[in-house]
Design a protein that fits this description.
Layout: E1 6-12, H1 19-29, E2 35-41, H2 48-59, E3 64-66, H3 75-83, E4 90-93, H4 105-115, E5 119-123, E6 130-132, H5 136-153, E7 165-168, H6 169-177, H7 186-196, E8 201-205, E9 207-209, H8 220-236
Parallel strand pairs: 1-2, 1-4, 2-3, 5-8, 6-9
Antiparallel strand pairs: 4-7, 5-7
Helix pairs in contact: 5-8
The structure holds guanosine-5'-triphosphate, 2-acetamido-2-deoxy-beta-D-glucopyranose (2 copies) and magnesium ion (MG).
Domain Glycosyltransferase 2-like: 7-175
Subcellular location: Endoplasmic reticulum
Protein name: Dolichol-phosphate mannosyltransferase subunit 1
Length: 237
């Protein structure tokens, strides 16, 4: 295989139904690029890792790399762990539950080339971006979190809590060296740190669709953890 240019970091927890579809879509939409996918599964009880192994037989061990962990250690640490093994100069972070459509990745890549940005972030809150399939409560929480973060931290980007992004690998490595949040606050922390460290950020409008299969993991706990994460970031600035 040609030298890997793009590494997709795909953390999974209970995504056995979504994983075959997302991998298939990635292959469809990224056929022009030299890429690899690193799946970081946290010992999902629904057998996600077994599905990933089957997919590896189809797509090849060079394209699908499995870096499982022994338990659910959180989303933020999953990215940091996967990043260690990334061979591409650019990293794409996305969810495995089909909320993030791979069709946007070529747009991220193009935007990066045009603007020479260090980070290209998908945004649901500008241009043609949007959210589909969420109920009112969920929209309110997301908007609220985003609004609160913008007011408190003034990061200069329109979607802080989204997680569909492209980073230059060395930039992401520098960002995660400064301390990482373990869970959902990770995305927001990355943007805030990026601004403080003077990295260039561009945006691409994306449509975000609610997960197709599987249960939502966004419960009361995660909201509280997010709020605590937000406040501690605010405190540190
Ligand atoms: N490895 C790993 N992956 C995780 C963990 N928590 C969530 N994920 C994965 O991270 C991505 C985002 O998590 P989601 O549960 O979709 O988060 P969300 O989009 O905010 O909420 P829902 O889609 O409503 O559940 C998905 O691919 C999950 O499978 C974790 O602790 N470890
Ligand atoms: C994961 O799946 C198992 C069974 O398949 C279920 O008991 C558990 O609640 C699920 N966990 C989450 C966080 O979705
Ligand atoms: C930063 O991370 C290190 C190692 O994970 C930890 O020991 C330290 O307490 C963290 N500091 C802050 C301010 O979060
Ligand atoms: Mg999701």
């Amino acid at each position: 295989m040609a030298k890997v240019e793009y590494t997709i970091l795909l953390p999974t927890y209970n995504e056995s139904e979504n994983l075959p579809i997302i991998i298939w879509l990635l292959n469809q939409y990224l056929s022009d690029y030299a890429f690899e996918v690193i799946i970081i599964d946290d010992n999902s009880p629904d057998g996600t890792l077994g599905v990933a192994k089957q997919l590896q037989k189809i797509y090849g061990e060079d394209k699908l790399i499995l870096k499982p962990r022994s338990g659910k250690l959180g989303l933020g640490t999953a990215y940091v762990y996967g990043l260690k093994f990334a061979r591409g100069q650019c990293i794409i972070i996305m969810d495995a539950d089909l909320s993030h459509h791979p069709k946007f990745i070529p747009q991220f890549i193009e935007k990066q080339a045009q603007t020479q940005a260090d980070i290209v972030t998908g945004t649901r809150y500008s241009g043609n971006g949007g959210v589909y399939g969420w109920d009112f409560k969920r929209k309110l929480i997301s908007r609220g979190a985003n609004y609160l973060t913008t007011v408190l931290l003034r990061p200069g980007v329109s979607d802080l809590t989204g997680s569909f992004r492209l980073y230059k690998r060395d930039v992401l490595r520098q960002l995660v060296e400064q301390n990482q949040s373990k869970g959902y606050a990770f995305q927001m922390e990355m943007m805030v740190l990026a601004r403080t460290m003077g990295f260039k950020i561009s945006e691409v409008p994306i449509s975000f669709v609610d997960r197709v299969y599987g249960q939502s993991k966004m419960g009361g706990d995660e909201i509280i953890k997010f709020a605590t994460g937000l406040l501690s970031l605010f405190w540190r600035l």
